[in-house]
Amino acid sequence: MGEEVDRVEFTRADRTAFRNQVHRNLDAFARMLREARFAAERPMTGIEIELNLVDENHDPAFKNSEVLSAIEDDAFQTELGQFNIEINVPPGQIDGSGLVTMEESIRDSLNAAEEKASRTGSSMVVVGILPTLLTEHIHREALSTNPRYALLNDQIFQARGEDVQIAIDGIERLQVTADSIVPEAACTSTQFHLQVTPEAFPRYWNAAQAISGVQLAIGANSPFLFGKELNRETRIALFEQAADTRTHELKTQGVRPRVWFGERWITSIFDLFEENSRYYPALLPVTSDEDPIAVLDRGDTPALSELRLHNGTIYRWNRPVYDVVREKPHLRVENRVLPAGPTVVDTMANGAFYFGLVRALAHDERPIWSQMSFSAAEENFHEAARQGIDAEVFWPGVGTARATELVLRRLLPMASRGLDEWGVDAAVRDRLLGIIEQRCLTHRNGASWQADEFHRLYTRGSHGRRDALRGMVRRYCEHMHENTPVHDWPID
C-alpha cells in the first residue's frame, strides 16, 4: 500500500471526494509531464525483498513485531502477515561495481538481522511461498498488527461480499476458502525498481512486460502452497485470486481484476494512471488537504497522495511509480514479477538479467512490442508460472521455444549488451549472467530444487508429507545461508 492510513469507516462523501482528488491529481500529473518537471540525471535502482519467518521446526513464526523490535533497523519493515517482514535496499547506481555493492549491502543487512531475529526464536527465509505454511495458519489473527492491514482486509471483503475462493490446478489440486486476505501474505516477492524519464517510461514498461514470462520461467521459486505441489510459480495464481475484489458475477461480466497483467502496450505512463482512475473504485479513500494545481502554480512539487495511494491498491506485475525525493519528483518501473530467493546471489543475478535485458530491448531500433502481441506476452507469463523452467514461450523471430534455449541463444547476449550500456563492469556482468546461464544449462532453479528435494524425502523416502516439507525447508535454509547459487544445490 505504501501509505499509513487510520480510518476505519468510509462514507459515500469520502469516496466522492477521493475520486475528485484522484482526477485533480491526474490533471496535475499531466501538466508535470508536459512541463518536464521530473528528475532525469543518473537514474537510480532499488530492490525490495519480502521475507518469511520460521520457528525452530521451520514452521511459520508469527513474530514480525518481535523480530522488527529486535532488528531495530529502518530498512526492515512490517508486511501483511505476522510471518512476513520486508527489507528495502537503499537506491543506488548499477554502473561500475554497483551491483556488487548492493549485493554486499543486502548480505550484511540480512546476516545482522538474522542474528538478532534468532534471539526471538525466529529465522528468516527468502522464498516465494513458505512450503510449511498450511491452511491452519491462515486466519485473520495472522494479519500484522498495523491497522492499515485490517482496514485493507475489511475493504476488500466489503467489495467482494463473500469469502475468498482459491482454486489452483497444478501437479496436485488445491481448493480452499478463506475469510481474510491472509493467503495473500503467502506471496513473498522480489521487487526491482528502475528510475526512468517520462519519455523512456513506456519503452521500459513495455519491455518489462514482454520479458516477464521469461523472468518467471528462469526464476520460479514457489512450487508448494498449503502442503500441495501446484504450479512452479504458484504465487502468481494465488495472488491473483487472494487479492481479487470481484464477485463471480463481475468476473463473468469481464470487470478487470486488481491483480492485473494489463491489456495493451502503452505510449505514456499517463495511460496506466488513467486506467487506474477509470477502471477501479477506491479501496482506501483517504484524502489530503493538498491542492496539487496550486502547489504547481507556486513552483513546488505536489505529493499526489491520492494518486499514489490508489496506485498502491492496484497490483500490476509491472507497476508505475510516482515518488518525490528531496522535493524532486521521479518515475520508476516497479518489476514485481519474481519471487523472493533462493539466495542473495541468485537475486542479484535475476536483477542483472532484468536490468540488462530491459535496457537492450527499450533501445532496440525495432521494439519487441511492435513484433509481438500483448496477449502473447500475457500467455507467456501464465505459462511460465505453471511450468517454470520447463516452460515454452513465444518470441518474435523464433516462434515457440523452450525458455531456457531462448535465454541461452538470444536473451543472455542482449542482457550482456544492456549491462554494458549501463556501464556495468565486465567481471560483474559475467559473474551474474553466468549464474543465469548455468541455471538454464543445468535446468535447475529454486522451484525445481524444492520439488526434487521434497520427492527425495517423501516419494522415495520414509518421511510423511509435513516432515518432508520441513526437511526440505531446513536444507533450503542451509544452502541459502551459504549463498551458493541454486543451480549448484545438491539433491541427496
Helix and strand layout, with pairings?
Elements: H1 12-34, E1 45-54, H2 64-71, E2 76-78, E3 84-92, H3 98-117, E4 123-125, H4 147-160, E5 164-169, E6 173-178, H5 182-185, E7 190-196, H6 201-219, E8 224-225, E9 228-229, H7 234-242, H8 248-252, E10 259-260, H9 269-279, H10 292-297, H11 305-311, E11 315-316, E12 318-325, E13 328-335, H12 344-362, H13 374-387, E14 392-395, E15 399-402, H14 403-422, H15 426-442, H16 446-457, H17 465-482
Parallel strand pairs: 10-11
Antiparallel strand pairs: 1-3, 1-4, 1-7, 2-3, 5-6, 7-13, 8-9, 12-13, 14-15
Helix pairs in contact: 1-9, 1-11, 2-3, 3-12, 6-12, 6-13, 12-14, 12-15, 14-15, 16-17
Structure in words:
This protein has 492 residues and is of the alpha+beta class. Helices cover 46% and strands 15% of the residues. The protein has helices at 12-34, 64-71, 98-117, 147-160, 182-185, 201-219, 234-242, 248-252, 269-279, 292-297, 305-311, 344-362, 374-387, 403-422, 426-442, 446-457, 465-482; strands at 45-54, 76-78, 84-92, 123-125, 164-169, 173-178, 190-196, 224-225, 228-229, 259-260, 315-316, 318-325, 328-335, 392-395, 399-402. Strands 1, 2, 3, 4, 7, 12 and 13 form a seven-stranded antiparallel sheet that branches. The protein has a two-stranded antiparallel ribbon with strand order 5-6. Strands 8-9 form a two-stranded antiparallel ribbon. The longest helix has 23 residues, at 12-34. The radius of gyration is 22 Å and the shape is globular. InterPro entries: GCL_type2/YbdK_subfam (IPR050141), GCS2 (IPR006336), Gln_synth/guanido_kin_cat_dom (IPR014746), UCP012666 (IPR016602).
